[in-house]
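Supplementary Text 2. Reproducibility record for the structural model of the 326-residue chain.

All settings were left at their defaults, and a single model was retained for analysis rather than an ensemble. We include the record here because the model underlies the residue-level annotations in Supplementary Table 4.
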Amino acid sequence: MSASGGTKAIVAALGANLAIAVSKFVAFAFSGSSSMLAEGVHSLADSGNQFLLLVGGKKAQREATPQHPFGYGRERFIYAFLVSIVLFSVGGMFAIYEGYEKIKHPHELEHWYWPVGVLVFAIIAEGFSFRTAIKESNELRGKLSWKEFVRRAKAPELPVVLLEDFGALIGLVLALGGVGLALLTGDGVWDGIGTLCIGVLLVLIALVLAAETKSLLLGESAGIEEVKKIEAAIVDGDTVTGIIHMRTLHLGPEELLIAAKIAVQHDDTAAEVASAINAAEARIREAVPIARVIYLEPDIYSEAEAAKGPDREATPGGPAPHPAGH
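Retained model, structure tokens:
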């Protein structure tokens, strides 16, 4: 996995969640707090999720085969989508069920200092993991807001870890609030309410992750800035006079496919066109290093075809779309 895959953030989150999961289950065993049980399962699910991300990163490094000629880069998208499923089912739905049962059949907390102590420890550990994820994300997101970073990131690992850690911290505060109110009022229903809120939070985060990773699985184009660089690199103003139309597709977070129909002069020789295409491919790879697969098809630009309308399929000789359309 490349550095942009956020390996350090994943390993930090995995270590923190394993330690937290053990402490939460111990606290549940001594106190009987449903919030602790839900949080323990949540941390265990998160640990499994980080393991899935590491496995996906490893599998994505496999070489291309005749059956999979474009490689296995999308393995990272698949495993990130599995994370959202685990978070929804094992984390969210289990917590909702536990919260419902505790509200229906409340009981007084025992040895309250166990859950309180563990929650404080967990907040500190999750805070460390969250800080690591933020630090690595800041190296990639540039001027993007956090919302834009989560939505536009092609490498799914960092957004997944960010949302998981953010959800974990909010969940810990909810658990601490539920346990605290249960102790203050002597009513175990508050512990169940806190558990229920944790479940709803995890389900919402899982749905956001599922929506974003689904988009990656379906196939996203290059970003607007990358498209502009590619278009500038293709046209040399001599043999390649313009781009008739172009498609881009992420084969993986760091693998980009580019297919374009380019306009050449009608009196250029085949050797001149071939040389111009090779030069254009070299310029593209220099401008956008993740461009791994490039197909450039030469054609004669036709004003008559372009005048038929903006439909790129109906007007193969028409102009390229504006970069904002990607």
